[in-house]
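Course assignment 3, question 2. Fill in each field.
Student: A.L.
Task: Predict the tertiary structure for the chain below.
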Amino acid sequence: MLALGQEYVRFALAHPGLFRLMFGSGLDRQSHPDLEQAAQDAFRVLQHATLDRGSPSPRDAALGAWALVHGLSHLIVDNQLNQDLQEDAASGRLLERIAAIYGLSTPREAGSVP
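Answer field:
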């Protein structure tokens, strides 16, 4: 789960324009069946990852995880975090700490969280 979230944040950092385009209000996925299918497939991957963690509600858990990394990604892309948090976000350390605070990672996943 943590690795999926870190990749989501890394993508947003590496491709901020594409990230904004993908989630902007100007894109109507229902008008583009291939995009809608890709979105559903991506969400399904996240649901399966929550199932692997024993979630009683994979859909809700997946939505919560997505909301967390999506919101964090927007804060980063829009430069709403101070420099040290931006650097920690880029390295993956920020998401590790957040995941540990909420009990969303195991020591194996997060490594040693400062």
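Instructor remarks: The chain has a mean pLDDT of 85. The longest helix spans residues 33-52.
Grade: pending
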